[in-house]
Amino acid sequence: METTIASLLGAAPLALDRDFGAGLLGLPLPAAPAAGPALSGPVEVARGERFAVARGVAVMPVRGVLTPNAEILERFLGWATFAGIEASCGALAAQEDVAAVVIEFDTPGGLVLGGAAAAGAIAALAAVKPVHALVNPLAASMGYHLASQCSEIAMTPGSLAGSIGIMRQAGWPVGPDGAGQQWQIFTSTHARAKLPNPETEAGRAEIRRDLDAHEAAFHADVARGRGIAPEDLAARLSVTDDPADGGATFGPEAAIARGLADRAETRLAFYDRIFAAHAPKPAAARRGSGRGHLAQAAAAQARATL
């Protein structure tokens, strides 16, 4: 049987948009590193590297299904991990030649486990230098959780952001297996929450309690990162008048109107703006024309003659 990426995740709570993530979850585990750069463009990030720096700007791609520390996915596919994001943020915060950081997002989200540490690391980095998020083309669920901690969020045309919420799949044996046996699951007396039975009302209540606790932390981080009053966030995320109808993704115009993003621009325009704001300015002497250099030389020669 082929081992898929989904097999790494089990039934753990996910902050992942299923519409965009299902295909990635079904991929087989890679057997060798993918070819080519992890990110190309104004700053090329080599495969296997977590970020690259050019002209005072560091660029970190956050791609694929996010996991705490799945090194095989990071090394072979170029997908980000929470451990890698946290380590990169610490390094970039201390790197004196980095004036600003770009985090480019292309992710449906991933596991909840470990995500809070990565989000906290981005927030800590944004406290010491500008961190610009570029949604190109997707920052969903845990991906948006991370993006919300950046100093600003820009979205390329046709991109999507949001899918804020937590999900979990739960299974329970209800019929005989291939050998004709029906399995039952037991927990110890004081461990009923260890493996709640989704076939019972008590089990469903425990699953929802756990999901709601994760969602509350998710909402609190987004509200703080985006400067939205926590009591207003659920209504902004809903597609109806009912605050429970959240979890959707939004294009640039709708995301900006809801306070989830700041601007819409092409990738080229985004990087032009970032480098114009943060790249080192040429020395005054280098900005002078050739005629100016000749005039300075003539003046120096005249002073020497006098």
Automatic annotation (TrEMBL):
Pfam families: Peptidase_S49 (PF01343). This is S49 family peptidase. Residues 295-306 have a biased composition (Low complexity). It comes from the Bacteria. It comes from Rhodovulum sulfidophilum (Rhodobacter sulfidophilus). InterPro entries: ClpP/crotonase-like_dom_sf, Peptidase_S49. Belongs to the peptidase S49 family. Residues 124-267 form the Peptidase S49 domain. Residues 282-306 are annotated as: Disordered.
